[in-house]
Every structure is written in C-alpha cells, then in structure tokens.
Specification:
- It holds the Pfam family DUF1707.
- Residues 9-61 form the DUF1707 domain.
- The chain crosses the membrane at residues 93-109.
- With 132 residues, the chain is mostly helical.
- The chain has one domain (3-71, 93-131).
- The chain is built from six helices and no strands.
- The chain has helices spanning 5-8, 13-28, 34-46, 50-55, 92-112, 119-131.
- α2 (13-28) packs antiparallel against α3 and α5 runs antiparallel to α6.
- The model has no long low-confidence stretch (mean pLDDT 77).
C-alpha cells in the first residue's frame, strides 16, 4: 500500500471503476469468492483515497486498481496481421504523358478543324480518372 501523500490522494469515479474491473478479473480467475467480491466492490464504491482502494488488493496479484499508462507496441516488420499503408505512387510520369497527349490532341484539332479529333482527349481524360 502507498504511503505519504500518494496514499492520501483522493480517487474519483474512474479509479473506483478500475478497481471494480480488477476485482472482477480476480473473481473470474477464482482468486475471490462471490461474497468476498461483493464486499470488496462495496468497499471500492465507498473508497475516498488511493490507500482505501489499494488495501483491497493487498493479498491479490496484478491487475490492481491503478494500471500504468499503456506502452505502445511496435509491430514487427514481417507481421502479416499489421495493415500497412499503400506506398505512394509517383504520378509525375503519368501527368507528363497526359499533358503531352492533351496538347497534341488540341494541336490536331486546331490544324484539322474537325471535332472527331477530340476523341483521343476523351480517352486521355478516362485514363486520368481511372489512374488517380
């Protein structure tokens, strides 16, 4: 059990709920019987300080009422269950190709003065839409 100032810090609803959840784990693992669990839950609900909550766990192993902050787990590089973002594509070559195709098509339309020469521009537009 904590001593000094740490033990005298008042607890709130979230700390009491953590303690009750930890007691439920101990009940599920067979470390507490139902009567003892109910008694400790009642005491946890009435607890005012950390010392009050910690006293409920003196004879129990972890988990306790005050769980340390979660540690970030870094997945292994070869873990098949980790979803990795798709690599970014370099669209510079596609943009250059589409720009040259569009300018070429406009030059052909200007020289021939026919509307059907715009058909390749429609194809280029479709390529641009599906490639992006």
């Amino acid at each position: 059990m904590g001593t000094g100032r740490e033990a005298n810090i008042r607890v709130g609803t979230s700390e009491r709920e953590q303690a009750v959840a930890a007691l439920a784990d101990h009940l599920a693992n067979g470390r507490l019987d139902l009567a003892e669990y109910e008694q400790r839950v009642t005491e946890a609900a009435a607890a005012r300080t950390r010392a009050d909550l910690l006293a409920l766990f003196d004879d129990l192993p972890e988990p306790g009422p005050f769980v340390a902050a979660a540690v970030a787990v870094v997945p292994r590089a070869d873990d098949p269950l980790v979803e990795r973002p798709a690599p970014r594509r370099n669209n510079r070559g596609l943009a250059v190709f589409l720009g040259v195709a569009a300018v070429s098509t406009l030059v052909v339309v200007a020289v021939t003065a026919t509307w059907w020469a715009l058909a390749p521009l429609a194809v280029v537009a479709l390529i641009l839409v599906f490639a992006s």
